[in-house]
Amino acid sequence: MTSKFPMTVQGARALEEELAHLTKVVRPKLSKEIGTARELGDLKENAEYHAAREQQGMVEARIRDIEGRLQHAIVIDVTTIAHTGKVIFGTTVDIANCETDEQVTYQIVGDDEADVKIGKLSVSSPIARALVGKEEGDVVTVKTPSGLIEYEIVQVRHI
């Protein structure tokens, strides 16, 4: 993982909070559990010890993963970028389906932050790729499994 990738301020903050929780709460708790399990005797047949060690390995792997992601992230604060009406990474975009007039709102975020259920759309998704670089009032065509869908960009916000 040597290439840089974009991340919103909120995404970076969430990773930093998870990292702090893992290093300051979970890691010490697991160390205590391992110590307690070790005192129970024979380590070969000590299920509590092996479970705690396995959990410790997963936590340490997640800590390394988060540290790597933060190290290679380019954190973009869209609120500091002048509003031009153009869709860029980090903006929140209101789009309307041209056929049904159904309106949805998405924030264009990094791959790690994406969660369509809460309106966070990966910058590498087909919809985001169609939107980035376009402006308010533009109509974009998105290829979906059910066919082509046209969306009009209603509003672009830097929030």
Structure description:
Helix 1 packs antiparallel against helix 2. The chain has 159 residues and is of the alpha/beta class. Strand 6 and strand 7 form a beta hairpin. The two termini are 29 Å apart. The protein is built from three helices and seven strands; from the N terminus they run E-H-H-E-E-E-E-H-E-E. It has two domains: 72 residues, Helix Hairpins (Orthogonal Bundle); 80 residues, Chitinase A, domain 3 (Roll), CATH 3.10.50.30. The strands form two sheets. It has a five-stranded mixed beta sheet with strand order 5-4-3-7-6.
Keyword list:
159 residues; alpha/beta; Helix Hairpins; Chitinase A, domain 3; 2 domains; five-stranded mixed sheet; two-stranded parallel sheet; 7 strands; 38% helix
CATH level-two architecture of the largest domain: Roll
Structural shape: elongated
What class, by secondary structure content? alpha/beta
Task: Determine the number of helices (DSSP H or I, runs of at least 4 residues).
Answer: 3
Strand order of the largest sheet: 5-4-3-7-6
Number of strands: 7
Q: In the residues, how many domains can be counted? A: 2
| Main sheet summary | 5 strands, mixed
Topology as H/E string?
EHHEEEEHEE
Which regions are unreliable across 5 or more consecutive residues at pLDDT < 50? Answer: none
Span from first to last CA?
29 Å
Helical residues, percent: 25-40%
The fourth-level CATH homologous superfamily of the largest domain is: Transcription elongation factor, GreA/GreB, C-terminal domain
Task: Classify the oligomer.
Answer: single chain
Family: Belongs to the GreA/GreB family.
Domain Transcription elongation factor GreA/GreB N-terminal: 6-75
Keywords: DNA-binding, Elongation factor, Protein biosynthesis, Transcription, Transcription regulation
Organism: Serpens gallinarum
